[in-house]
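Section 4.2 – Deliverable D4.2 (structural model, holo form)

The reporting period included a commitment to supply a predicted holo structure for the target in complex with pyridoxal-5'-phosphate. Inputs used:
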Amino acid sequence: MPPIELLPEKEFRSHAPGCWKDRGVAETDWNSAAWQLKNRITTLAQLEEHLVLSDAERAGVLLSGNKLAMAVTPHYFNLMDPVDPDCPIRRQVIPRIEETLDDPGEMIDPCGEDAHMPVPGLVHRYPDRVLFLVTDRCASYCRYCTRSRVVSGVGAQTLHLEHEAAFRYLEQHTEIRDVLLSGGDPLLLSDAKLEAILTRLRAIPHIEFLRIGSRIPVFLPQRITPELCAMLRKFHPLFLSIHTNHPRELTTEVREGLARLADAGIPLGNQSVLLRDVNDDPAVMKSLVHKLLMCRVRPYYLYQCDLIKGSSHLRASVSRGIEIIESLRGHTTGYAVPQFVIDAPGGGGKVPLNPDYILMKDEQRVLIRNYEGKVFEYPEASVALGTPRTLA
Ligand SMILES: *Cc1c(COP(=O)(O)O)cnc(C)c1O
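Output (structure tokens):
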């Protein structure tokens, strides 16, 4: 089997036909979200029709059924290298035996969400905003999913999606001005269902800002129809955060879907998870953030991988993350640099991590360094204690 040609990273190309063997698929089928969902890869036999699996993958697939289901859309699957198990696309969605390793620091609910759910499906951790889990299903399942306990339908817990209870909570809590729809993947809901949720939220006067977190633009760009975009644009201000980890994910189809969303006036952000041998490399990350800007997507967060059970083989070090940020800041467009964060284990929320640019700071001055390592001094503003800042 010839290895698939790796793309020059600046190019937006679909890999179709990539590793997907069934060349008989009609273009109208391939371009249909319903066809993509119906033909997801969910079994070992299907995987082996298209790929040469490693022993670690084969064993991982056999053991994944009671932890987090395997499902991969043909679109995303088609980006895989058919022979290399270390392919960055394969590492994200094909289970491996390492998922069964017991790492003492790892948890079932690493961000302590269950403890911050006043009603099922609503995580209220920060004063003015909530995370609203509207579904427990995704188009494909990321092996490092922080919510694997509740998504995909095979894990230890079920998420009781009490939309009515959540709406009542939101109506009563006037301090909430920002609602983030997530799940599962909200864009897996039908247009009608999603529109009903957004309409209900928009009827609550204190809710100013709506956003959706979704990996559908990447896993299932066929779902980003003109109809969906026309519906979403009625609910502005509405932002959308996508989730890409590797430049190869930004194909022609994905870029076109993102263009439809951007043309509907939806500001787009990206959240990446730092993953070992996927994107823990400055060159890969630089290529990714540049492609994102070309798609009008602003890199928002780079997450240190949550301490979810069975993810140790995908975890890169915190130092690596800081190095990557340092390799970007100043060296490329400021808009291209995401904020590196750790979602604090147990439920402390997102904590920003930055390279140290302050070398020394006292009451008189700050010593700083720039991206090239050159040192500068900035005199601290001298405001003596008790001196009014403005003249009376
Ligand atoms: C990430 C997150 C948010 C949103 O955080 P921002 O920093 O505002 O993007 C809100 N609630 C919860 C529980 C979250 O995990």
